[in-house]
Amino acid sequence: MHFTEPVYRNPYWPTWPLLEITRGCTHNKCKFCTMYKGVKFGVAPMQDIEQDLRELAATVPDARTIQLLSANPLALPYDKMAPILEKINEYLPQMEHVYTAGRVTDVRNKTVDQLRALRDLGLNEVSLGVESGDDWTLARIDKGYASADILEQCRKLEEAGIDYWMTFLNGVAGREHSRDHAVNSAKVFSQCKPIRHHDDRRRDRRAHGGELPRPLVGLHDAQHLRGRRPRREAAGRRQDRGLLRHRHGRHLR
Using an 8 Å Cβ cutoff, are 10 and 67 in contact? Predict the structure, then answer.
């Protein structure tokens, strides 16, 4: 199997098999993230992908799920993604669920019809690292898009019938802006339709990020943010409550 270090997998999806089709992250500028700082983005050669699929066909021939790597394979345009999915179905004919991660901007280069075609080839769940629905916070952490983009691209996924879930990253707005981060994220997230867990609790897959490591990577030293106080744990709890209160329209004590 071909894997480029470091290897990260989504803990909410089946842990194996994994298939690397890209390396690194196309954006690689988020100020809270160091995951792929030393990795230049690239696309895995089709011969490597086929070799890995042959190995998987020999070891897990009845596989019904597969997780695509690396940071955001969804960035591949339709004419590159579709042949990979076709090969997955060729080598693993029992395949039912193909999972991949992506950025909001990765959806832009595909039409709804193209997204539907990818869904028909098995791509039926996407993890979007949204982090916030607040424009100030999105600019602060250099996500490369605005809240309007989240709504536009998520609606395309919904129209295409591709399930998705989204993350809310606690702490990235700092103490002074934590309420706006929570409230504006709630307003945006409430207009989206992420999938739910298939269990009795039926929880929305709006994944919640916990405490950020210190220092906050690029945020810690950013010139324009000097003087702002880091978010404390108590402030983080208030931020969480603000998100939930405005999402569900009720007061939380």
Answer: yes
Q: What predicted TM-score, i.e. pTM, was given to this entire model?
A: 0.82
Q: What is the mean pLDDT of residues 27-46?
A: 95
Q: Are the C-beta atoms of 203 and 143 separated by less than 8 Å?
A: no
Select from 156, 14, 169, 166 the least CA-distant residue to 99: 14
Q: For residue 172, give Cα distances in angstroms to 40, 133, 182, 184, 238.
A: 25, 12, 11, 14, 14
Please report where in the chains the tokens 């569900």 appear, as a residue: 248
Distance CA 3, CA 241 (A): 40
- Whose structure tokens read 């108590």? 234
CA distance 138 to 182: 12
Give yes or no for residue 243 having a pLDDT over 90.
no
Q: Give burial (CB, 10 Å; 0-12/13-18/19+) of 132.
A: buried
Q: What is the pLDDT of residues 138-154, one digit of tens each?
A: 999 999 999 999 999 99
Comparing CA positions, the residue from 59, 52, 62 lying closest to residue 20 is 52
Token output for 143: 């996500």
Spatial distance between the Cα atoms of 83 and 249, rounded to a whole number of angstroms: 45
CB of 74 within 8 A of CB of 55?
no
User: DSSP for 64-116?
Assistant: -EEEEESS-GGGS-HHHHHHHHHHHHHH-TT--EEEEEE-GGGGTTS-HHHHH
